[in-house]
Amino acid sequence: MVPFFGLFLGHPLRLTHLVGAVTAITGVYLMSIKSDFTISPGDLMMLLCAIFFSLQILALDYLTQRFDPVLLSSGQFFVTGILNLVLAFMYETPTWTGIEGAMGALLYTGILSSGVAYTLQAVGQKYMPPTEASMILSLEMVFGGLSGVLFLGDTFTERQMAGIAAMCIGVFVSQLPSRAILRLREKPIS
């Protein structure tokens, strides 16, 4: 979705990005569609999440070119933490016992899954176009599925394996330089 939303912001759409995005979207479809080819409400929520995540990647691309990515991430974590703390007391009744019981998961999620991973994403996006970043990040679904196979004993259907292959091919194709870029590289510098 990032390549298509990027058009509205003046980002060029290379043929390799278009082919890669369509191939990866086909892979997502194959991995998530049910055997009777129906879409569940959860799939629609994932689509909505993908839209917002695409907008987040484009915003991060814009902001990391103007601000230090580590400071940007730190500021975002601070604001998000304060807002979530307020919401926690508005809609829940947190107890110290509950917090202690979830401390390991809270620390892992807060520090590694959110803090380190998101900061590394921001630093990486400073040096990578948003379309290519989004294609690489789309492999999260593949790695999540592989983790289910390795740690939970899940299995893939043939359709899901075809989806994984399509996603990997889509990411690979989106990284290929277009013919125009290759022609520019072949011209001697005068």
TrEMBL record:
The keyword Ion transport does not apply. It is a multi-pass membrane protein. Keywords: Cell membrane, Membrane, Transmembrane, Transmembrane helix. InterPro entries: Diverse_Substrate_Transporter (IPR051258), EamA_dom (IPR000620), EmrE-like (IPR037185). The keyword Membrane applies. The chain crosses the membrane at residues 12-32, 44-63, 70-91, 103-123, 135-152. GO terms for cellular component: plasma membrane. SUPFAM superfamilies: Multidrug resistance efflux transporter EmrE. Residues 41-173 form the EamA domain. It is found in: Cell membrane. Belongs to the EamA transporter family. PANTHER family: EAMA DOMAIN-CONTAINING PROTEIN (PTHR42920:SF5), OS03G0707200 PROTEIN-RELATED (PTHR42920). This is EamA domain-containing protein.
